[in-house]
Amino acid sequence: MEPRMNLMTNELGAKIGKRFYNVSLAIEQSSLPKATQDLVMLRASQINGCGWCVDVHTKEAAAAGEAAVRLNLVAAWRESTVFTEAEQAALALAEEGTRLADAHHGVSDETWAQVRKHYDDDQIAALVYLVAMINAANRLGVIVRTKGGSYEPGMFAGLSS
């Protein structure tokens, strides 16, 4: 399947994309650890089947120094020993917040309690917005069939304004 459209070459798409990126930049600049952000974005993108987003978040995390074993085990994080309790709480929130259409009942009280145990209010706000934004980005990529494989780390540097 070929990509349907490049939203960034469309005038309106690019205008909206810049604003979308600026929201993501605010999340990135929060006190939520960058490694946690990368893991959450990668996991949601895997669940949603967005090849472009999996490509972006895997390569950005690797460029930031994330270990290959952790990136390779994100899809099986519950069956792995390489993630902290805090990261596991964030990954659980990402999964439960992503699987809303799978007859899931949203984020469980147990998961929320684990998130509250490991993160402060600002970090939780960033995490909640992060899950919402990556799910939106995944949907954009899947709808227009943006393919993974061509992303180079840092490609979007300087996009904001």
UniProtKB/TrEMBL annotation:
It comes from the Bacteria. NCBIfam families: ahpD_dom. It comes from Microtetraspora malaysiensis. Gene3D superfamilies: AhpD-like. This is Carboxymuconolactone decarboxylase family protein. The lineage of its organism: Bacteria, Bacillati, Actinomycetota, Actinomycetes, Streptosporangiales. Pfam families: CMD (PF02627). Residues 26-96 form the Carboxymuconolactone decarboxylase-like domain. InterPro entries: AhpD-like, AhpD_core, CMD-like.
